[in-house]
Amino acid sequence: MFEQYKSLLSELVKFKSVSTDASFLSEIQATVVWYKKLFQDNGFTVQVVEGHDNPLIVADYVADSSLKTVLVYGHYDVQPASKEEGWDSEPFALSERNGRLYARGVIDNKGQHLVHVVNVFKHIHNKTLGYNIKFLIEGAEEIGSPNLERFIKENRKFLKADFVLLSDGEISGNMPNIEIGFRGIFNATLNIKVGNVDLHSGMYGGFAPNAIHELAKIISKFYTEDNRISEDELYLESAPITKEILENNKNIPFFQEEYEKITGKRKFFTENNLDFYTKTGLLPSIEVTGIQSGYAGEGYRNAIPHKALAKINVRLSPTQDPQRVFASFKKFLKKITPDYIDWDINCDQSGKGVFVEVDNEHVAGAKKILETVWQKPVALKYVGGSLPIITFFKDNLDLPTLSIPLVNEDCNMHGANENFELSYLEKAMEFSKIFFTKK
Ligand SMILES: [Zn+2]
């Protein structure tokens, strides 16, 4: 089955199904054709749904109407990649070396959902499939799935299932993980202006306000010295950090030295001595992800810039409402920005965080299988990233979700040399095989 997996994966990663750039549309279309044929050849009823960003593939297989139905989510779109970014092999060709498979999409997300696809096919072939299956494979995850919620709302009946299974993350702590929380998110652009023109830095230097300095002063007020967001209102409605949560999170190893080595950072911050998983999984954060102003080309332009902008990414505690926090953030900016600065801020993209239900038979069943495969206890993990799809399923279909990452933590998601370590792949295949087996 490994061979079948690798051969399908090598076909699949060849498609440059990049969703962040419209020039790859023909590759997206070719990918969809590939999936359609693959599912049809294996006995599925396939629908390609247009009109909600890139086409969605919904592939349906009814093994026995008395069985439960699992909706398996995945996405076929990928981040851009080029050899110049530091890849040691062609990004859009599968390569195997050092006990790992390399290619763009090999873990995000083609290679992860393909594990389930191949195992389901095998069970169909052997007549040992324990569920009815609906695969929902979308093509706009990397651009935030802007119309997926609308699709789900309009197709409640069509997507009817008993629970959702998705594998789209990384395994932390070298032990099997079930993801139980995701942070919310919003992105915003802050524009500031001091006057209407750039001024000569000789004639006005030290006298006229400088937009870069003013922006830096504003940004420097986001956090206190001990790395807490300065404005308490931004913590409102965040999830309480209970003793149980702290206990749970302390049991997941965090290999700080290894992180320092890989990232080259000599320091990581936290607040109130909280561990990594609590700080990144349950508390809000503000990251300035880009700034623009003045002149940074060759040579120098001796002028005092009058405008500047900052791109800001805010992550929210799973229980916080993005619009409410954005309103508080705006209020906070008003407080820390002097009158002589004109400013405005736009919220462009937002998504609510979520806590995933853990008190159900699906989680209990998956936990047991993971423990058997890994011979280790399962970590219940709060994830710092955001996965709006889980909120969509919960809010619109009222479906419990099982979020089980399958890949190594050093998989370089979105980066060069994206990879799937074979020892993890072996465990993933074993998990998926047992998971879909008829009881
Ligand atoms: Zn991604």
TrEMBL record:
Peptidase M20 dimerisation domain sequence ranges: 188-340
Keyword Protease assigned: yes
Gene Ontology molecular functions: metal ion binding; peptidase activity
Domain of life: Bacteria
InterPro entries listed in its UniProt record: Bact_exopeptidase_dim_dom, Cyt/Met_Dipeptidase, Peptidase_M20, Peptidase_M20_dimer
Keyword DNA damage: no
SUPFAM superfamilies the record matches: Bacterial exopeptidase dimerisation domain, Zn-dependent exopeptidases
GO terms for biological process, alphabetical: proteolysis
Pfam families: M20_dimer, Peptidase_M20
Keywords: Hydrolase, Metal-binding, Protease
Protein name in UniProt: Peptidase M20 dimerisation domain-containing protein
Source organism (scientific name): Candidatus Brennerbacteria bacterium RIFOXYD1_FULL_41_16
